[in-house]
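Late entry, zinc ion complex.
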Amino acid sequence: MSPATPLAPFDFERRELKDDDVLVDILFSGVCHSDLHQVRDEWGGSIYPMVPGHEIAGKVIRVGKHVKKFKAGELAAVGVMVDSCRHCKPCKKHMEQYCVEGMTGTYNNYERDGVNMAQGGYSTQIVCNERWVYHISDKLELAATAPLLCAGITTYSPLKFAEVKPGDKVAVAGLGGLGHMAVKFAVAMGAEVTMLSTSPSKAADAKKLGAHHFVLSSDRDAMHKHKSHFDVIVDTVSADHNYETYLKLLDLHGRLLVVGLPKTHPEVNPFELIKNRRSITGSMIGGTVETQDMLDFCAEKNIVSDVEVIPMQYINEAYERLLKQDVKYRFVIDMASLK
Ligand SMILES: [Zn+2]
Ligand SMILES: [Zn+2]
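Prediction complete; structure with ligand written out below:
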């Protein structure tokens, strides 16, 4: 209800189903660190009352009469956005996350009509235009698929953009919700994967997730040995850090793919960029077509997130633990606890 109060029960109505809308019974909702940022208004401009949650997995209850993609009873997912202008250049290319007029976030946003508030996944049902609703394979454990809708697509999209292929040397910096998905995807794409972390305790966890190597990023000698070594580094670190530490490790045409959001803005020495013609590329979630591709890739490769399933009533404790990074690697709310 406000930045300073804990989450509490709140009743609201979803809008009426339009002809191209899908009504989804929410079964699981992932807990993303950006939920916490927005709930506490750490990015500014938060709108209350706010129902967070943008990693939604459930089952279709009902569809509008023009809906072609879904039938009642099918599994369905909703991610970080629920609409966009639909006519600008990025939208036409199905990269709605970069909509010129701004995408409509799943919560903490007004819908395109400027009247209805978009509310997120910590709820029992959601109504969403079918373009922003995705199919999930019944081969995957449903609770563990929810985080694919944010942590998954956020790391899959830049790896695809960088055209990672078998044999490429990929490093992942930071082992949390994003980092653990980046490792799984890079391994599944056939890359030789190295985890870069400041904490030695992460070495065993990184191996378990499939990483082939581990480098302690606070160890100067170890980092020096990997100078100009990697084709791609996925930087998921949200703590303040120096980009140059990672840039130096990039080989010819190497890319630093930035998905973490540190508070202070890093300075970069251009000499480190012109060497090896390195680049820094930012990336934000993924478009609707790519999100479905990612979910299909997960079904084919049997990839899900590592999750700790919690009841809704545990959410405030879960937030405290999230701040201490005390979760491997994503909390997922079992929405049966709210019904
Ligand atoms: Zn998220
Ligand atoms: Zn647009």
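The chain has a mean pLDDT of 97. Will revisit in the morning.
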